[in-house]
Amino acid sequence: MADAGILRIEKHDDCLCFRNPGLLKLPVETIYQGGNSKARNPKIQNMLRMIGFGENVGSGFPKIIAAWKETNWGEPKLLNKLDVDEVELVLPVPNISNLSFTTQNVVKDVVKELSDRQRVLVEMLVADPYLSAKVMSEKDRVDERTIQRDLAKLKKLGILSREGGRKDGKWIILKEKL
User: Fold this and answer.
1) Which pTM does this prediction carry?
2) Residue 14: strand, helix, or coil
3) Is residue 118 classed as helix, strand or coil in its secondary structure?
4) Are residues 33 and 74 in the same domain?
5) In a shared domain, residues 49 and 86
6) φ, ψ for residue 47, nearest 5 deg
7) 156 and 88 in a common domain
8) Both 68 and 105 in a single domain?
9) CATH of the domain at 57
10) Which of 92, 110, 128 is the last residue of a domain?
């Protein structure tokens, strides 16, 4: 049986593994389809959504699947492990040691130029490429102009590009630069 109340996150060479005690309230197939959700604690879910840290009901797992498909990192696996009373999410990740020496140096050089805040912005945009500078500034609790300067630097470094307009566009992460 899983340790009661302990969320475990494991980093392996080829994946990230999230383990949460308890079982899913919906069948795994329904969760893969999205649009449905049954929170374990609806009050906390609603509170987090109201302050900008929660997702719309049923949108989280499809976003994870879409992000992993876009990066070609492999298919996320969601497992409802009845035998140990645990939910497990396995997210495949590339192993930087498998990259060529030249690619590793380019990755290190580009990432070295980024501030912690710029790295956080990239992570936010990987999770949701439709975020506006205003929303990012609210989430990161930084002035919107600062976010705009960071986005401009990320574009100049070739890490980001913009597709579409200000209101209906999305950010494109140029993965070959990361």
Assistant:
1) 0.46
2) coil
3) helix
4) yes
5) yes
6) -60, -45
7) no
8) no
9) 3.30.565.60
10) 92
What CA–CA distance (Å, rounded) separates 102 from 52? 40
172 has which bridge partners? Answer: 161
Dihedral (Cα; 56, 60, 65, 68), 10-degree rounding: 110
Return per-residue pLDDT of the chain as tens, 178 residues.
Answer: 445 568 788 888 888 888 888 888 788 888 777 756 666 566 766 766 676 656 655 556 777 787 787 777 788 898 989 888 888 989 888 764 444 433 334 344 455 668 888 888 888 888 888 898 998 999 888 899 999 999 998 888 888 889 888 778 888 887 644 5
Structural domain that includes position 111: 96-177
In a domain, 111, yes or no: yes
Question: Among residues 92, 112, 147, which one ends one of the domains?
Answer: 92
Q: How far apart are CA 131 and CA 65, in angstroms?
A: 18
Residue 136: Cβ-neighbour burial (10 angstroms; 0-12, 13-18, 19+): buried
**Nearest to residue 40, comparing CAs of 27, 28, 26?**
26
